[in-house]
Amino acid sequence: MFFHLPSFIQVGPLSLWGIITSLIMVGGGLMFLLQIQISRSALRITWPLLALVGWALVLLLVTYHITLPGVQNVIVWTGVVLTIWVAAWEQVRTQSLSRLIGGIMPFVTLYLCVYGTTTVAVGFQDPSVPLLLLIPMGFYAAQHALKVKDRRWLLAALVVLLMLMRARTPMAIGFVLLALAEIQRSPRLAWLKVVGIGGSALAVFALLIAYYEPFRVAFFEGDNAVQLGGLALNTSGRAYLWSTVWASFLESPWYGQGLGASAQLIRAIGSQAEHPHNDYLRLMHDMGLIGLGWWILFALSSYGLVRLGLRQALHPDEAVWHVTARNALLVISLSMITDNAVVYAFVMYPLGVLLGISAGFTRSTSRRGTP
Q1: At what angle do helices 213-220 and 190-211 cross, to 10 degrees?
Q2: What 3-state DSSP class applies to 335?
Q3: What angle do CA 101, 103, 109 make, to 5 degrees?
C-alpha cells in the first residue's frame, strides 16, 4: 500500500518513511518558530510526551544504546508534539482546519474502502489499512453519537469490511466505536443497543467462521498459542514474541534495555517480525516503567482535555471534533495491545492533528498572548 511503500525504500541508513517523518518534524519546528504561540490547552496535553522524548534522550546519552529504530521512534514522538502545537494554533488562528479535515475525510474513507475491498478480492492482507480506517470511523462515530448525522449503516458496513479483511483487533475496536456511538446517541436504550450490537456481531462472526475460510484460518490456524473456552486461538506468533520481550524487560524494569532494544531482540531470536506487536510492552522493555508512565500520563491528559472541550462546546459541530479526538485516542490505545501504532507516523500524526483541533477549540489563554 502507499503508506507502506516508503518503508521499503532505503536512502542511506534511513527508510524513506524515516526521511519523510524527519522532514515533517523539521517543517513543524519551523512553523512553530515562525508563529510561536502555544495554547495552554496544547501544552497541557503535550508536556508528558515531551517528558517521554526527554527520557528517551537521557537513555540514549547514558546508555549510549543508539539504534536506528530508537532514533526514528523519538523523531515520530517529537513530530506528534509539533503536529499538536501547529494544528491547535492553526485552528485557533483560522478556525478552518477542522472544516478542511472534515472535507477530506470522505475521500480518505473511500480510498481506504476501495483499496481494502481490492485486497479482500485478491486475497492480499495489508495490516495498515484497517488501522487507518479506524481514524475516519472515529469521526463518523462522533457524528452519529451527537446526532449530527445518522451514520449507523456506514459504521456497520465499515465493521463488516474490517472483518472481511481479517483484521482481528481493528474489527473489535470497530465494534467498540459503534457500540459507544449508539450508547451516547441514546443513553436510555444503552443496554438494549449493546445486546443488539453484540448479538449481531456474534452472528456475523459465526457466518464468517462457517463460510469464509480466510477468516477461519486467521482465528483458528497458526501457532494456536492461546486457549479460550476449549478453542485454540492463533496469535500469529505474538505469544512467543511477548514472552521473550517480557523476560528481557524483567532484567531492567525501571529503566529498560535501551531505545530500540526490543526490535534488536526480536531480530536476534530469528523472527521475521520487526516489532514486538505490543506497544505497551515495547515502551516497558525499551524505556522501563518510567517511559510507560509518561505515555500513560500523555493519554490521560489528552483524554482530560477532550472532556473539558466537550463540556465547553457550544455547538454539536464543534463537539464532534472533541469526540473524534477521543475516539482516535481510544483507537490508538487499544491497537497498542496487539500492534505497533505508537511508532507509525501515518497513524500518530493524524492523532496529533485531531488532538490539536480539539485543543484549538478548547477555550483557554495562550502561553504567549491570547489566541
Answers
A1: 100
A2: helix
A3: 85
Cα dist from 211 to 123, 165, 208, whole Å? 15, 14, 5
| pLDDT tens, position by position, 19-71 | 555 565 566 555 555 555 788 899 999 999 999 999 998 988 887 677 778 88
pTM over 0.90: no
Among candidate residues 239, 244, 245, the one with its CA nearest the CA of residue 224: 239
pLDDT digits over 221-253, tens only?
A: 766 556 655 556 666 678 888 999 999 999 999
Q: Residue 14: helix, strand or coil by DSSP?
A: strand
Instruction: Cell numbers for 113, please give them.
Output: 474502502
Q: Are 193 and 186 in contact (CB under 8 A)?
A: yes
CA dihedral (239, 242, 248, 249) positive or negative: negative
Spatial contact of 308 and 365, defined as CB atoms under 8 Å apart: no
Calpha distance 286→252 (Å, rounded)? 9
